Amino acid sequence: MIQFKAVTQQDGGKLRKYYKDCQYGLCEYSVGTKLMWRPVLHAAWAEVAGCLVIRNTDDGRWVFDYPVPGPEGDEDAALTAIEQYCLEQGVLPVISVVPECKAARLLARYPYVHVSDIRTWRDYIYYREDLQLFAGRRYSGQRNHIKKFRARCPDACFRRLTGADEAVIQQFWADYEAEFPKGDNAKARSELNLAKKMLRMVGKPWFIGGGMFDGEKLVALALAEKCGDTLIIHIEKALYSYPGVYPAMVQAFADNCGDGCRWIDREDDAADRGLRTSKLQYGPAKLAPKYCFEPQNELLKHVKEIPELKTERLTLSALTEADIPAYNALVLDGERNRWWGYDDVGGLGGPVEERSFFDVARKDFEKRQAVNFAVRLDGKLIGEAVLYRFDCRGGAELGCRIDAACAGHGYGTEAFAAVADWALYKVKLTRVVAKCFKENQASYKMLSSCMRKNGEDETFFYFEKLV
User: Fold this and answer.
1) 3-state helix/strand/coil string of 102-166
2) Residue 183: is its pLDDT beyond 70?
């Protein structure tokens, strides 16, 4: 199980170890974005298989960044760990802000997946040289604005900002707020407060800060971070009372702070009309997509209701309320279920009531997390077969238990084989897996008769059936 830790400023160096060489070219893959937006996204991190794995919260659900590998990182192993974590938590593994260079890999990984690419998420990516030179007709407007600024402030100069500039930066914020045109906009005010907190870290080695000065007065500033061959601009602010300072700042920052970078990422536009217009006027080379992959399991695609399956002696079908007494007796048989591998009572998280186990099975199917088949002999419930732990990659686990009074007649093997075939040929899975405790010889014999053994550990023998 992955052990996540909330992102804090103290973790910046560890995150930077992965982000400094990351070539994804998106602002989310940077220390600055993780720190600036942590009050919103509640980012948490872990190191898995030599990769950085980030878990965020979006609209009340977990979403994961695509793993960022270190020198020996294994992306597939990290993705598998995310999937296993989500299985244990009972949620689907949503991989978000996926860079274009990794999209094909996830399309090949998930047989059924919903993919979205929201326009307002896309980052504006520019050639560094374009912003550095503002050459050509399309940048005539920027050049004219810069000329006006230089005419008014002929001695204005750009220089790097450091931790020693704290007082100058604080004065800039006071001047900026005095003329802030969106002071009554809660979203803009929140973003401004986050930006002010970020500028307190201008002295950190992860960040590059720069400012345009009119004499001793700071009239524009920016904070950025180099990730691979991309300079990611986290913050750009300028005083509105200095016409033309904004493009002058953009140009000076690209010229003085972008060495070694091919691209400049000025992040997304947050669906702000004015911001979108401004970013487009600077001639982006591309709007970088950020794909969101939401894998779907096969139950969601192919199973609208639990079917009835028939074998030579048995009928398998959905549990009904009439089954509750027999089902409770099956689930509460502690001696029999010591080999089941799951604590049904503990899993309730509360007191056992008459409908408790029936309701769990019903809700699991409603959420398409599992299918519980009642195993019936002459109409009477004698056991259950459960298809569960759908990995969204074409696989699921199968378990079966039979009432002690009916054990030893091959009913478990018969029910197990029937559900496995249904899963492979009707639900369209590619792999059904199972396991049994090493001490459980009856289950070992049953699984060996209808599946292929494919491994073991100190506790279990593992089996699989493929198509």
Assistant:
1) HHHHHHHHCCCEEEECCHHHCEEEEEHHHHHHCCCHHHHHHHHHHHHHHHHCCCCEEEEECHHHH
2) no
Cα separations (Å) of 406 from 40, 313, 400, 403, 439? 55, 13, 13, 6, 20
Task: For residue 86, give the amino acid letter.
Answer: C
Give the whole-number percent of the chain exceeding pLDDT 90: 92
d(Cα 429, Cα 392) in Å, to the nearest integer?
10
pTM: 0.90
Task: Give the angle 85-328-336 at the CA atoms, nearest 5°.
Answer: 75
**Residue 33, Cβ density class (10 Å: 0-12 exposed, 13-18 middle, ≥19 buried):** buried
- CATH code: domain 5-122 is 3.40.630.30
CA distance 229 to 144: 30
Mean pLDDT of 322-343: 92
Burial class (CB in 10 A: 0-12, 13-18, 19+), 308: exposed
Token digits for 466? 């493929």
The superfamily (CATH) of domain 123-267 is Gcn5-related N-acetyltransferase (GNAT) (3.40.630.30)
In tens, the pLDDT along 454-464 reads 999 999 999 99
Domain ranges of the chain: 5-122, 123-267, 298-466
CA 113 vs. chain centroid, Å, equals 14
The predicted structure's pLDDT at residue 325: 97
Residue 432 is given by DSSP the state E
Q: Which CATH class is domain 298-466?
A: alpha beta
